[in-house]
Amino acid sequence: MSFLPDGSGAPLEEMRDLAGRWPTPFYLYSHALAQADADELRAGILTNLPKAELFYSVKTNPLLPLLRGLLAAGWGMEAVGKDNLSAALAAGATGERILMNGAAWSRKELERALFQLGVRRLTVDSLAMAELLGSVLKSLPGSSCIDLAIRIH
Prior knowledge:
Layout: H1 12-21, H2 31-48, E1 55-57, H3 64-72, E2 76-79, H4 82-90, E3 98-100, H5 107-117, E4 121-124, H6 127-138, E5 147-150
Parallel strand pairs: 1-2, 2-3, 3-4, 4-5
């Protein structure tokens, strides 16, 4: 049995078999290796920034087993668009564990995220998004508190 040159990953024979059965290129993931890398990164960051909250960018890889493992390990989910939000929710993320990012959110999507899902972390990177978010929040009965990150280019 042969493994990758560094000794990690799937056996080469298994990889060759998969390449013969599936169209290439294709991606072969090791959940154990991905989880170990994420755990090492999280531990290193929290050693230096113990109060940091870490969010995995769902657009990087929206595979549900990976997202579920990261959620279980304490990561939040960063969603850039409704497909990312759907993947985060399907993996089990609650609104408290989601950071909405990007300028592609519609009023309807923001209202759903804020009022129905309980999302309270957002990144704003344009005046138009700030105006839309302000308008949506003003329509909320009572007061609402959100965490807001502002990205200036």
